[in-house]
Amino acid sequence: MDKPGEIGGGVAARGGTALCLGCGGPLLCDIQDQTAQGSLYMVQRGPLSGITIVDLSRILAGPYCTLLMAELGARVIKVEPPGQGDDARHYGPFRNGKSAYFSSVNRGKESIALDLKSPEGRDIFERLLDKADALVENFRPGTMEKLGYGWDTLHSRYPRLVYAAASGFGHTGPYSHYPAYDMVVQGLGGVMSITGHPGMPLTRIGTSIGDLGGGLFTAIALNAALLHRERTGEATKIDVSLFDCQLALLENAIVRYTTTGEIPGPMGARHPSITPFEAFATADGNIIIAAGNDGLFVKLAQALGRPDLAENPLFKTNPLRNQHQEALKAEIESVLRKAGTGDWIKVLEAAGVPCGPVNNIAQAIAHPQAAARNMLVEVDDPTMGSLKLAGNPMKVSAFPDPTSRAPAPDLDGDRERILRELGL
Amino acid sequence: MDKPGEIGGGVAARGGTALCLGCGGPLLCDIQDQTAQGSLYMVQRGPLSGITIVDLSRILAGPYCTLLMAELGARVIKVEPPGQGDDARHYGPFRNGKSAYFSSVNRGKESIALDLKSPEGRDIFERLLDKADALVENFRPGTMEKLGYGWDTLHSRYPRLVYAAASGFGHTGPYSHYPAYDMVVQGLGGVMSITGHPGMPLTRIGTSIGDLGGGLFTAIALNAALLHRERTGEATKIDVSLFDCQLALLENAIVRYTTTGEIPGPMGARHPSITPFEAFATADGNIIIAAGNDGLFVKLAQALGRPDLAENPLFKTNPLRNQHQEALKAEIESVLRKAGTGDWIKVLEAAGVPCGPVNNIAQAIAHPQAAARNMLVEVDDPTMGSLKLAGNPMKVSAFPDPTSRAPAPDLDGDRERILRELGL
Question: ipTM score of the complex?
Answer without folding.
Answer: 0.93
